[in-house]
Design goal:
Number of helices: 5
Shape: globular
Largest sheet: none
Oligomer: single chain
Radius of gyration: 26 Å
């Protein structure tokens, strides 16, 4: 018994475009174009970091609500960066956390903050170390 040779039929596949050796950022925008300057607007969370802000993205995650953490939070909230948890910061935090805006940190404010940053809800009436650690990690992302 002799087997007859089978011929395999190849289907033509479309050619893939050649990859450029330029980086993706070079492909997307010419080098001459500068990115637009960020628009600072109060009440809208998101980093409004300026060149002189040295804490954004570099916070030590230590659970301490110190001046660097507060300054990064103020930057995120778009308020004056004083490094102190003042009334303006508290009101902006409450607005962002969608809680009543009375200027006092309490159980509702903490619960709202915990919800926004993904921290465990623990019923605390003050921003505790566990919440601060999650807040610091959150702020380091932006």
């Amino acid at each position: 018994m002799t087997a007859s040779p089978t011929t395999a039929t190849r289907t033509a596949s479309p050619r893939r475009p050649r990859r450029s050796r330029r980086s993706r950022s070079e492909q997307e925008a010419p080098a001459e174009e500068a990115a637009p300057a960020p628009q600072a607007s109060k009440g809208e969370p998101g980093s409004k970091a300026t060149g002189d802000l040295s804490v954004a993205g570099t916070l030590e995650v230590d659970g301490k609500m110190g001046p660097k953490t507060i300054t990064a939070l103020q930057d995120w909230l778009g308020v004056e960066q004083t490094g102190e948890m003042d009334e303006e910061t508290t009101l902006a935090l409450q607005a962002w956390a969608k809680t009543s805006q009375d200027g006092v940190i309490g159980e509702d404010t903490v619960a709202g903050l915990q919800h926004e940053v993904g921290a465990a809800q623990n019923g605390s009436d003050e921003i505790d170390g566990d919440t601060v650690e999650v807040l610091q990690a959150f702020l380091n992302l932006y």
